Amino acid sequence: MSNQYEKYYVPEQSPWPIVGAVALFFIAVGAGLSVMQLEQGGGSGTYWLIAGIAVLVYMLVGWFRNVINESQSGLYSAQMDRSFKQGMSWFIFSEVMFFGAFFGALFYARMLAVPWLGGEGNNLMTNEVLWPEFSASWPLELTPGGDTTQAMGWQGLPLINTIILLVSSVTLQFAHTAIEKDNRKQLTVFLALTVILGAVFLFLQGEEYIHAYQDLGLKLDSGIYGNTFFLLTGFHGMHVTLGAIMLTVVLIRVIKGHFSSEKHFAFQAAAWYWHFVDVVWLCLFVFVYVL
């Protein structure tokens, strides 16, 4: 009878959700202003963006610390573990819908809008009225304003980054096997390799953006191709950053001796998220770079 009822820990009221909301508001305002003020050489948007990032880091550190302390104090029950798994599952599902919307915009532009604008079917009048010289091909290297750009090829940095993320999934799986076997040394090594590979990916993506702006003339305002390219790859890069932060926190906890072969959901949640990010990148590589 003693095991019939499980204890259920109810945490104290937390200020972190509202702090996170404020941080995201600052980041949204700062990012928007920074894009608008880009040609002016800067402005208030940069300060809003930095403030938002600083508040977000403060929130993450504080919230992670609270949850870790609660977990290490043995306050969580099996019911809490199930709640965490359900919460992480729904979070990843929401991320699937998030990227689904952007992929949907890409497919709509490529499969419907571009052919219509080129006069396909019964839309010849649309082509003649809106853009008579329009050539219905993808990627669009000519904007309505007359600016030209070049498409980002799949060879070079995109291919290298794809290999890096695929390898990082393998190293993370080795780390997962190690934690299930309680092999702390192997766990630490492979988890650290995963974090390093994630950092290399982000560095190379920054190099790719510099190449796009300086050498290809490919920018956020380069028509629908530039929009979809930077929104999809940029948001993915943001998610890689978040995943790398999660894995770094897990790595620090591993070094401190946290987790066991039976209880390691924080590691498992970060692994789920990282594998999701890898799958998204594979879709990006195929539909944005290759096709």
Strand content: under 5%
Going by CATH, what is the homologous superfamily of the largest domain? Answer: Cytochrome c oxidase, subunit III, four-helix bundle
**What is the overall pLDDT average?**
86
State the CATH architecture of the largest domain.
Answer: Up-down Bundle
H/E topology pattern: HHHHHHHH
Describe the overall structure.
The chain has about 290 residues and is mostly helical. It folds into two domains: about 15-75, Helix Hairpins, CATH 1.10.287; about 80-290, Up-down Bundle (Four Helix Bundle (Hemerythrin (Met), subunit A)). The chain contains eight helices and no strands. Helix 5 runs antiparallel to helix 6 and helix 7 runs antiparallel to helix 8 (about 265-290). The longest helix is centred in the middle third of the chain and has 40 residues, at about 80-115. The radius of gyration is 23 Å and the shape is elongated. The mean pLDDT is about 85.
List the helices and strands and how they pair.
Layout: H1 16-36, H2 44-72, H3 78-117, H4 124-130, H5 157-180, H6 184-216, H7 223-255, H8 265-290
Keywords: Membrane, Translocase, Transmembrane, Transmembrane helix
Transmembrane segments: 16-35, 47-68, 89-109, 156-175, 187-204, 224-252, 272-290
GO molecular function, one term: cytochrome-c oxidase activity
Write a concise synopsis of the structure shown.
With 291 residues, this protein is mainly α. The protein contains eight helices and no strands.
